[in-house]
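Try it yourself: sequence plus xanthosine-5'-monophosphate, in.
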Amino acid sequence: MQHPRGIVIVDFGGQYAHLIASRIRRMGAYAEIKPPETPLEEFRSAAGIILSGGPQSVYEKGSPQADPGILALGIPVLGLCYGLHWMTQALGGEVKPGKVKEYGKTPIRVVEGGGDLLRDCANGCTVWMSHGDEAAKLPEGFTLTATSDACKHAAFADASRKLFAFQFHPEVTHTEHGEDMLRRFVALCDAEPWSIESYAEHISAQIKQEVGDRKVFMLVSGGVDSTVAFTLLNKVLGQERVQGLLVDTGLMRKNEVASIQEAFKPLRITNLRIENASDEFFANLKGVYDPEEKRRIIGNTFLAVQKRVSEEMGLTAAGGWMLGQGTIYPDTIETGATQHADKIKTHHNRVEAVQQMIEQGLVIEPLKDLYKDEVRRLGEELGLPHELVWRHPFPGPGLGVRILCAKEADTVEEFDIRNSYLAGRQVEFEFSVLPVRSVGVQGDGRTYRHALAFFTGQSAVPHEMLTLATTIPNTNREVNRVLVCTSQSTLPEFVFSPGYLARERADLLREADAIVDAEMRDDAGLYQRIWQFPVVLLPFGTSEGGQSIVLRPIESIDAMTASAASLPPAILRRMTERLLVLAGIDLVFLDLTSKPPGTIEWE
Ligand code: XMP
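Structure, out:
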């Protein structure tokens, strides 16, 4: 299927390519991501090329490389960070480790006549740097356009060949005028305009072509993505060629199933079967403790139920049915679908059985080119209720990734703070490393580390603690999250309660989640300000069988990076008090960690 003629982002690793693509699309130009190995032929029709950053060194063996021919197509090219290094090396310049690593906000000075792209920074500006290597010698034909204290060649260009290079990241919001720089580059390219309305037509045509005269059987999870995908398929193919299945996994939110049925009523969508398979899910998850194993089992149980129901209803491949999924663009990369992205978490839409079906052409994923905000706008276009479409995202495996499972306490014997930021500092509050670990992301890799909790017992978070939440995971290898305990001001004796994913624990978390949701909606504006608010259950408390709740409110634009959201103290206090009333909840924590180093979910 032909995509609009757009800007091609070459993905050299990490998550930069997504940020760049979503920024450019928000400017109204089409952008898509391709791996470096993409054959030269596929670049010929690009309107422009952006070479993304990436974690590796371009001179190292095995580092990602693209075809240098892309620099000679006469198409505008912008190389960013690793992209700059690759471009430099490919054109005969030299890349070396810099004398110092530059990281964070850095002032640059634009060299006189610094060119079109940096026009808004004529008087200098602050940019986001994150690099160890630098261009030691520019390729022939290039002139310097900007410089920083530590990096002489902070930006350079060969305007006659429309080749531009920045050592910094204009796609990151910390870069002053970053958006202007990208917009000026886009203006040099002849990209087709992008809007969700025009893309809806494009996807509709694509669906018709991919499905042909087959029919689509679609798993609807209750989340925004699969709901929008199901509605779109219904609209394009008609109800008689689509069948929905909502599997009640026992890991859904309180009243979730009923609210989805309600939302489809005004659209007269009636082809959704509800299957309560919670017994099967809990049976398969019995005695399972490893987070990745849990995800695999949830994904495979979904498929087994789907297979059973589809056979029962005669919805098989042989009968002309294919499988629909609500996978969106970022989901496809978080699994390491592109060669250079490290595997952080296996997305349930990409477990092996599904992967095989994809290879056989049996899966349709109509939203796989869209970002979350685009999916939401499409949902509204399709007539889904505003509240449903703008609901906080909820992961496919549901509460399953929010119930931490462990057989025994996972303690750090001796917490080594000598090298950490805490060393030698007067911290007013008691703290402890918790006896569980959770997933995080640092650099471009996955971490599985402990959380450190301060015991303040307060609902107002001291400012110092927010700073510590950034510095502790950066300076201590044991820790990837920092929490504050809102229910206890002194360090208690922890009592560990071994637990896997059992119905009682899901029921308990469901109640806790409903309390948090209700409190959050009570405050005007809070629900909108917060991107997502996972509520997590930890297998330890202060009494026999007791457990803990972690509140994880975050602000984000696209879930690729996130910061901990602040809560009004009165609301945090009420949430804490109400949660402690639940039988079996001993402690309440608030997670203060950004992403990175912590992921949004704990698993
Ligand atoms: P993390 O935890 O990786 O989450 O920072 C990023 C976003 O993805 C959601 N998420 C998932 N969604 N299946 C999903 O459908 C999953 O397995 C999954 N894991 C994380 C998460 O809720 C957040 O919005």
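One thing you can check immediately is this: Residues 291-312 form the longest helix (22 residues).
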